[in-house]
Amino acid sequence: MYMPDVQMQTGILTGEKISKSIEYIINKFAEEKLNCAEARQVLKMAEEVLDEFCKVQKIEDSNEKSECKA
Q1: Is the pLDDT assigned to residue 34 strictly greater than 90?
Q2: Backbone phi and psi for residue 60, each to the nearest 5 degrees, phi listed first
Q3: Is the Cβ–Cβ distance between 13 and 5 less than 8 Å?
Q4: What is the mean pLDDT of the chain?
Q5: What's the CA angle centered on 48, arms 44 and 53, to 5 degrees?
Q6: Which residues are registered as beta bridge partners of 8?
Q7: Are 50 and 67 in contact (CB under 8 A)?
Q8: Do 19 and 11 contact (CB within 8 A), yes or no?
Q9: Mean pLDDT of 36-46
Q10: Contact 9, 66 (CB under 8 A)
Q11: Is pLDDT at 61 greater than 60 in this prediction?
Q12: CA distance linking residue 42 with residue 12, whole number of Å
C-alpha cells in the first residue's frame, strides 16, 4: 500500500510510517474478526481518547513542539 508523505507542523510524517500503521491496524481488526461498522466505531472512540492526551501550546513557543502522548 502506498501513502504519500504528509507535512505536519512538527515535521514530515512519512508515507512508509503511515502505511505500516494502517496495515497494523487493519490486520488487528481482522484478527479480532471485526466487521467494518465495528472497526469504524473503534477508530472513532480511539480518536476521542487520543484527543484527551493532547495539549495546546502557545504559537510563540516555537522551540517546543505540540505533543500528543497516548
Answers
A1: yes
A2: -65, -15
A3: yes
A4: 88
A5: 145
A6: 11
A7: no
A8: no
A9: 97
A10: yes
A11: no
A12: 26
